[in-house]
Design brief:
Helix content: 55-70%
Largest sheet: 2 strands, antiparallel
Bound molecules: zinc ion
Strand content: under 5%
Oligomer: single chain
């Protein structure tokens, strides 16, 4: 009887240890997600450990990122990066009003004649 109980503890103790170990490890993912959105790292780590890691992940994923958070800064950087890439992929070509040379829209003056001011979309 006592042997059986000890055996039970040994077997299920290992399972419990693995279960809580995995839950503990995955709770860090939820905590990291929460932190990038401007929420408490420790708070979400505790939430994951005391409830379940997936609950903390769902809660962290459904939070609205706080303004000034790393998450929003990353999104903004990605947006700017994409915008820049779009410009290179499809350059907005304009024509110089002075000499008719093709110039990129963001250029302040024409590289071939040096004229300043607005370039026209047609030559
Ligand atoms: Zn020009």
């Amino acid at each position: 009887m006592s042997y059986g109980f000890a055996n039970f503890l040994t077997n299920y103790g290992v399972y419990l240890f693995i279960f809580f170990g995995i839950n503990f490890g995955l709770s860090f993912i939820a905590a990291a997600m929460a932190k990038t959105k401007g929420y408490s790292y420790g708070g979400f780590l505790c939430l994951g450990m005391f409830t379940a890691f997936w609950i903390a992940i769902i809660v962290a994923a459904s939070r609205t990122p706080k303004s000034g958070s790393k998450y929003l800064m990353q999104k903004e950087m990605e947006r700017q990066f994409r915008q820049r890439n779009d410009q290179y992929a499809q350059p907005n070509v304009l024509y110089c009003s002075g000499c008719g040379a093709q110039i990129a829209s963001e250029m302040a003056f024409c590289p071939s004649c040096g004229i300043k001011g607005p370039a026209s979309p047609t030559a």
